[in-house]
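It is worth pausing here to work through a concrete case rather than discussing structure prediction in the abstract. The textbook approach is simple: state the sequence, then state the predicted structure, then interpret. We follow exactly that order.
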Amino acid sequence: MAKSFIHPYIPNSISKIKEEMMRSIGIQSIEELYADVPQRFKLKRRLDLPSPTSEQEVKRLVETILSKNKTFQDMPIFLGAGCWSHYVPAAVETAIQQQNSSHPTLHINRRFPKECCKHFLSIKA
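Step two, the predicted structure:
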């Protein structure tokens, strides 16, 4: 049996507990649990893992990798071109309806969204 490492947060890493667990299921070694796995699927070399790293270093590394991602807040989004169902408060509706008809106002188009988009696309800058 290889030199065992007692992990502070995994109680079954203590040799005595591990041996008791193996005895209760009727095996002599952990390898017996993998007896049904074909040899061609078993890794025959040691894993090439990085050296142990503190939680703070892992957090910093993950944040560095994640900082390369772009979110909707990092770039402009033009989905819908501003045409979608809007909540219009009753006070705004009333104010628009009470405005003098000779005063130029933007008509709120309730036809959604095709007619609304046609209206905005026809405006000349």
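Step three, interpretation. The two ends are 80 Å apart (CA to CA). The longest helix spans residues 55-66.
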